[in-house]
Amino acid sequence: MDIKYFLIIAKNTAQMLLVDKTLKINNIKTDLVPAPPESGTVCAIAVKVSEADLGRAKQLLSKEGIEPGGIFEDRKLKLQGLLDSKLQKTVTEEFISILKKIEDGEDLIKSDIAYLLSTEKDKEIEAIFLAADRIRHEIVGDVVEIRGAIEFSNYCIKNCNYCGINASNLGVHRYRMSEQEIIEVVDSLQIMGIKTVILQSGEDPFWTIEKLIALIKAVKDRTGMRITLSVGERSKEEYEKLRNAGANNFLLKIESTNRELFNEIHPDDDYEHRLQCSNWLKELGYINGSGNIIGLPGQTIEDIAEDILYFKNMGINMIGIGPFIPAKGTKYENHPHGDIKLTLRTVAVTRIVCKKVYIPSTTALASLDKDAQVMALQSGANTIMLINTPEKYRTSYKIYDNKFMVDMDAALYAVEKADRKLPTYLRQGAVDSTLDK
Ligand code: 5AD
User: Which of 41, 165, 274, 386 is 20 to 30 A away from residue 265, measured at CA?
Assistant: First the structure.
């Protein structure tokens, strides 16, 4: 028998953390997951408990005087009609059984995921992309969320072998934006109506916690925008301080869950520690971002299947999936770029497996093919990140070669061509003026 789960929706983050803590210290197993759309809150986190624990959880919360914003059953998504008699005749038994699981909202196991990632039968591939697109439509809708990214420093102390701005790459012109420069870009994003700013940098010790806190506060005070940080590994205390200062989301990709491969590509990092960081971020109530790179040296389909299971089991909320692209001056500068089709397939299977998550149509895909961003939107992706780093710096944020500068025009092109909707929060003026150009 399947266990039923319920989602306790908190009124704000402080309450969510309190609910989670109260239940945990009373030995109730909880999980933090994105709140369902019917709860009315966008981008909020809900506390998931099993049906068996729900009664006791309610009692405990009421004893503590905590009144949650609502409690919803965590329903399985059931899909009708993925499999019709015509399709049945053209696909394998194994594929039929996997598609039935998807229709019934059942969990896929690793061999199912590997099958979906590797089948070469046209009809099966078509059905996988259709399923992903339907799940995307039913779970997160047709709007493509647009975020603005500011790559505010390309200094980095790490030596990740794939990354063009790694510490030992002497061919890179290093820059740091000042807080004032960052704020100017944030203001311009607000004028466009954008609601989330991504602040990304290399692991740059110059940007101490105190400086980051001051920046977060300045952005919040001025604009009230949601803030996504992508500044690498820090201690739990530091993540907590950044969260308390107003950061909402955090991107810290695992890149690969194959330990050997992780160690090979990250000579300064420890796999367990990366997991630990991701767990801390989740515990602290961040909307938690991860993701992988497709086409790393030696990476197998099994590795990618494990990555997808990891995203699901860790309750990751945002999953960035991009092809590997060689970067000059790095160990892998002559390694071929990742396969676009396999990257798109990974996006589709991730949507099928992880369901209620944000999946960007990544800059790395756009860098290999202008239309790959359109295709990703049609394969399960639902967000686009604009690059808003000022022109004089952006070419130096060369994490890989020939990086495409996704701007509002490129985003509009992809959204229109994929026949999707723009968010209503974008200012009409911003959209029109870009179109007029
Ligand atoms: N190819 C593809 N993606 C890369 N990234 C960094 N270097 C490369 C590369 N050479 C990605 C990583 C990182 C994100 C900011 O960019 O996944 O998390």
Answer: 386
